[in-house]
User: Fold this.
Amino acid sequence: MKRVYITLGLLLAFSVGSFAQNADLAAYVELNEFECLNVGDTLQPYDTVTTAPYGIWGAINLGPDPIDSNETVWMSTPQNQIIDSGLYFSGYYTEYSEANSWLRPISYLPVDSINTLLDIDAYENDTNRYYINLMVPKENLVDGQKYGFYVFVKGVGDDFNSADNVDTSTSNNNAYVAITWHCDDPNGIRGMLDVASRNIDIFPNPAQNDLHFKYGFIGSTNNAVARVIDMTGRVILTKNLGKHHFGTEEFSMDISSLRAGNYLLELSTGYVNAVGKFTVTK
Assistant:
């Protein structure tokens, strides 16, 4: 993707025009819930060898129509600032985007570059979603407190005030994951392991011989892999899940060889990791 961007500021009480593509834009955030974001960290894609938090975020075109090349997708992320006229939105140039594919995946965000995070309680209690009133500027963030790492998507087009796409569902234009700001994480990795990922549905839990799990893929992957990890970080079992496309799928693993205890199930997709916790009983 091209990294050229432009920035405009505008209040979030906006109207969306309708023309050209029927493209349902969806905001997406992939971070471990309650991840610790500390000074000096840089969020990384899952397959980078790093002690920094793992994450990916941006916008997805769910279709049914594609997005033309060299269009501009307008979104706001924690790098954006609050100004007198509202919350900044940034416009990113895109390549051709088919349905069920990324418009603009973003990663490698230095935590030090975060300017705003979401007040989660205020957001959940505000039915009007006037986001400027729900943002917490960096200077007001409190160490150890929970905030929302957010993405808000407005539309696609050269004109910020009049999108070229007809967004068939605006309910998915906003997304956030709860994180912890400047907490003490001695390992600096993957957040709190005793909090199951919201992206893996594991059952039964506790389990004895067979473990089942569901995962919602956000795009195509050529080689998804599931790993069972013990509490010391040692990989106990590995299962190749093969190629998969957008949507939710169900899998199973034979865990009859595992001893009783607590384990992590990690699923690697090629662009993100998801982690869930389960218990084995005998």
